[in-house]
Amino acid sequence: MKASQFLISTLKEAPSDAEVVSHQLMMRGGFIKRLSAGIYNYMPMGLRVIRKIEAIIREEMVAAGAVELLMPVVQPAELWQESGRFQKYGPELLRLKDRHQRDFVIQPTSEEVITDIARQELRSYRALPKNFFHIQTKFRDERRPRFGVMRGREFTMKDAYSFDRDVEAAGRSYQQMFDAYTRIFGRMGLTFRAVAADNGSIGGVRSHEFQVIADTGEDAIVYCPTSGYAANIEMAEALAPTAPRAAPAADLVKTPTPGRSTCEDVAAFLGVPLHSTVKSIVLATDALDAAGAPVGTTIWLLLLRGDHSLNEIKVGKLEGLQGGFRFATSAEIEATFGCKPGYLGPIGIPPSVRIVADRSVAPMSDFVCGANDADFHYTGANWGRDVAEPTLVADIRNVVAGDPSPDVAGPLAMQRGIEVGHVFLLGTFYSQKMNATFLDEAGKPQLMQMGCYGIGVTRLLGAAIEQNHDERGMIWPRALAPFEVVICPIGFDRSDAVKSAATTLHDELAAAGIDVILDDRGERPGAMFADWELIGVPLRIVISDRGLRDGLVEVQGRRDAAATSQPAPNVAAFVKAALAA
Amino acid sequence: MKASQFLISTLKEAPSDAEVVSHQLMMRGGFIKRLSAGIYNYMPMGLRVIRKIEAIIREEMVAAGAVELLMPVVQPAELWQESGRFQKYGPELLRLKDRHQRDFVIQPTSEEVITDIARQELRSYRALPKNFFHIQTKFRDERRPRFGVMRGREFTMKDAYSFDRDVEAAGRSYQQMFDAYTRIFGRMGLTFRAVAADNGSIGGVRSHEFQVIADTGEDAIVYCPTSGYAANIEMAEALAPTAPRAAPAADLVKTPTPGRSTCEDVAAFLGVPLHSTVKSIVLATDALDAAGAPVGTTIWLLLLRGDHSLNEIKVGKLEGLQGGFRFATSAEIEATFGCKPGYLGPIGIPPSVRIVADRSVAPMSDFVCGANDADFHYTGANWGRDVAEPTLVADIRNVVAGDPSPDVAGPLAMQRGIEVGHVFLLGTFYSQKMNATFLDEAGKPQLMQMGCYGIGVTRLLGAAIEQNHDERGMIWPRALAPFEVVICPIGFDRSDAVKSAATTLHDELAAAGIDVILDDRGERPGAMFADWELIGVPLRIVISDRGLRDGLVEVQGRRDAAATSQPAPNVAAFVKAALAA
To answer: Which residues of A touch B73 (CB under 8 A)?
Structure first.
């Protein structure tokens, strides 16, 4: 490819709305162009990366036995009503009406359509297992699209759906996809981690996220370097402390803590460690009548160690809180505790309040907690002596680095990641609602066991850049780079020798199947080099009159500190070897 | 590929709503599956054809210097308001609102978005010429979707857009696309014809349709076998007859023609040739005031030879009719002519009626026409003697086979075709409305000259089948076939020899880069053969125990009347040669 036949369009400055580095670099490098909030044109440079991502995904999906088809972008509402998602999905689901006022949606995923296909096409146990995938445009009407392609509205996703005769077979399909994903992200040259994830409202059986590791990632993930355990922080279990509770040693004292309403402030004011304080969080659940009107509210007091944070996913799985909860209002808190927030605690509160103590709170003794009196805390509080033993002890906090791994293999470490893939064993959530059955050997209809498997194709661009960049620009792994090699001739328009050497080398590398671009724009070296460092092509070859006089060209990897001179006749072989390394 | 790892899903009967053979065969062959009116799932078999179509298009577009990008499916209304298409496009344009009640459209084409890109990216004459293309999902909310993928609502289209500095350069870009299209459809193995087409309301400079020839095609096309002239019938000029008008020989006679209101009936009743009769067609144009309210109506009488048909496109280009016209109502006709339709003619009508005589009507003498009196016609009518010479003579009819070619090279022939591509020199229609300019050498802004170039990717499936099928099913050209070769083993599950020979041959052909499928489903031969004849794979190889005993396998082309036996060891070489032929 020659630059003059392509479109190279770089910017010195990123637009001000680009918040994250991948967004900034993609805009500056001319990979994407904004059309509307969260809707981007994929410019020629960006599209080349997308095509490479798609090709790797497609190859590995087919190798794993999945069959490609293509489901529509615009889907009729009827199927979505059948699954219940038309009603339940929030405003992220883009709904529209056609000219006949019939309801349609722009697909954010295709569970309904594929289940409809499966219930028509896979009628016998002999047709199973089957795994269908497509790579198609999706739309999710985010309230606040941001981070460029990482949380856009229109995006490209690969979604696969497996259909199996029973749970065991579905587990095999799941594992095949898990393994395929491991190969896919490995081939892309990305550092990633598969982490156990929460199954969400679908209540599926098993679920893993594939996270590209990046300091700027939105997701917190934890792992055990010893055992390989890894999970999304939403999912990672905090084990109960094994040490028994110490006997009370201090008296309960109501202590003034004027204006200190956070555990941090109280601990500093009293000169005690933060982990000896207890944090109070007040939730509310509303009982509804048959018509959905609230008929009564239950107040919950959640107790966490002062140095811990609440995990709402875990809370949402507790008996009595599964139907949904909210944070209590200030009015509800004052009516219940007789005190404003910031000074709450478990001692002396109405028996109607349901207390949940975190596993780390239950073994505490001589702890500090609010006195339910503004500007006062208790010190020396003890379970059993000052307040009844908590009846509900549960894991309701996020793990922290150093916590024991749930598999008891060593301390946990933490990383941040960007979710680029998700494998999900759905069970019969959709097949039940949509009556997707097959006939077993006895001719009896059985519900299909389903799995779904997504990869964010366009999001991968952003994730790869968040992981691989420096102050000069992007650094593409070879497998995803828009071009593998760029030839930068100095004085292309002035020197016949340079022009001829550059063109010959270009043709030779291209003939060898290397994805090479020759920068024949005639730019000055500084601007030309800056462009290609920004674009992040793995290998740069500089051809100049001066070098050619000595029979040399300069080769420099994108991560190399300096160029090396190579004899011109060897450079093609050198490039091939360098790229293969 | 093995059939067991794919999805083969054939039907004995096509669904009743499948009107045309391509739709019937695609449904029966499991190429597509209906999701909603005009919205289809592309099943694995159909998608393979689409991918082959896309690959050929992509290769030839890049070879012709076009650069691929990807523009969004969901596009903001603002750009469409700028071009005026948001207001002017009918209900075929699918409009929607996002969660913030902002207007969007689902793209039917992308002129606005690409012009927006061009005006930002192509700022200097040095950046021109440039040609961008994408292959993307389109939506057109057809009032009555039909013919399967041929007139669907959601479809895939390749659309390219060229930007040039002047008309001459734009003409070169147009020719490059014309040539690329010729290669594309040629490589697909289709019989096609590029025909000159009307430029429509955009008033572009030049336009050709690429028509796949098929008896079932919706479009009538004409061509001159001698010169190669070819045009859409809307476009093809009917030359004026060269023979001078004969002198009047008959008297004007008002003749009873009871109940004969068509030229055919009148000619038969009177015993005269149809081409000696004149057909009267009454149109109306409405003058509007500034607010768009009708303030006056002009009645037009169009005169055609009885054996000719009206060409509304040509009529719409006449002075006074360019602003739009309609057929007059019965009430308007009776008020003007004092006679009901069926007996109208030019003699003795109010001078306010504007007469347009077709070029073939002007030289007629002694003709038959309506007498403006129910159940009466005139015979022996003559221009100049019985009615004033027509002041407006124009080409307003469709050409018919045998008419002289507009390039005066011989008689025209007619064919029917399916439009699969369109190249269109737009001029400055969009660049003017959207102010897409570049700076010329003098630093002066100039409007870009644009062209647009479409190929209906999914429609090509239907067109290829309409052209290539028989009573047993589809007959795919090799370049588009979902598989090039199918291996049909007889008794795959019973005979180890058959299984082994079939598998070995499959692996050998696959290794040679041939797109082969092994039917390992264990179907009975009759059902298996019927499936593959329906699916239309070019070459079938049958492997049986009986054949193997003689060291032979059977090879049969899809169009061959019978199979030939080939020595088993030679079959791979034979297949390669047969496919290359």
So the answer is: 73, 106, 137, 139, 154
Interface test with A, best of B1, B7, B125 (most A CBs within 10 A): B7
Question: A74, A81, A128, A134: best mutation site toward chain B, by most B Cβ within 10 Å?
Answer: A74
Best probe of the B interface among A78, A104, A131, A157, by most B CBs < 10 A, is A104
Q: At what angle do helices B457-467 and B21-28 cross, to 10 degrees?
A: 100
pLDDT at B202: 63
Q: Which residues from chain A sit within 8 angstroms of residue B97, using beta carbons?
A: 96
> Which residue from B68, B94, B104 is facing A98, i.e. has the nearest CB?
B94
What amino acid is encoded at A329 in this protein?
A: T
What residues of B are in contact with residue A91 (Cβ under 8 Å)?
Answer: 99
Q: b vs e for A239-250, b when ≥16 Cβ sit within 10 Å of the residue's Cβ?
A: eeeeeeeeebee
Distance between CA atoms of residues B566 and B552, nearest Å: 5
Alpha helices in B361-413 (DSSP H): none
The reported pLDDT for the residue numbered A581 is 73
What is the average per-residue pLDDT within B328-345? 95
Q: Tens of pLDDT along A461-487? A: 999 999 999 999 999 999 999 999 999
Reported as a single tens digit per residue, the pLDDT across B38-74 is 999 999 999 999 999 999 999 999 999 999 999 999 9
For B504, residues 6+ apart whose C-beta sits below 8 A from its C-beta are none
- Looking at beta carbons, which residues of chain B come within 8 Å of A41? 69-72, 113, 117
Are the beta carbons of B41 and A98 separated by less than 8 Å?
A: no
Could you tell me the pTM of the whole model?
0.91
Q: Are B25 and B150 in contact (CB under 8 A)?
A: no
Tell me which residue in B72, B94, B120 faces A154 most closely, judged by beta carbons: B72
Buried b / exposed e along B220-243 (16+ C-beta atoms within 10 A): bbbbbeeeebbbbbbbbbbeebee
Shortest Cα distance from A195 to chain B (angstroms)?
Answer: 30
- Dihedral of CA atoms B185, B186, B188, B192 in degrees, nearest 10, equals 60
Q: Which residues of B touch A94 (CB under 8 A)?
A: 74, 96, 98-99
Of B36, B161, B47, which Cα lies nearest the Cα of B94? B36
Residues in chain A predicted with pLDDT less than 70, given as ranges, are: 200-204
- For residue B300, the model assigns a pLDDT of 96
Structural domains of chain B sorted by starting position, each given as residue range(s) with its CATH number in brackets: 3-237+414-465 (3.30.930.10), 253-394 (3.90.960.10), 485-580 (3.40.50.800)
CA distance A100 to chain B (A): 8
Q: Do A43 and B143 touch (CB under 8 A)?
A: no
Residue A76: its chain B contacts at CB < 8 A?
35-36, 39
Tokens of A567: 């004899």
**B506 is written with which tokens?**
């499959």
Provide the Cα torsion A124, A130, A136, A138; round to 10°.
Answer: 80
- DSSP-derived 3-state class of residue B397: strand
Q: How far apart are CA A314 and CA A77, in angstroms?
A: 33
What count of Cα atoms within 13 Å lies in the side-chain half-sphere of residue B211? 28
Query: How many A×B Cβ pairs under 8 Å?
Result: 138
pLDDT of residue B293: 81
CB-based contact A339:A372 (threshold 8 Å): yes
* A511/B409: higher pLDDT: A511
pLDDT tens string B488-524: 999 998 999 999 999 999 999 999 999 999 999 999 9
**DSSP class of B228:** -
Q: Is B75's CB within 8 Å of A36's CB?
A: yes
Please answer yes or no on whether B75 and A120 come within 8 Å at the CB atom. Answer: no
Closest by CA position to B431, among listed B106, B90, B130: B130
State the amino acid at position A244 in one-letter form. Answer: P
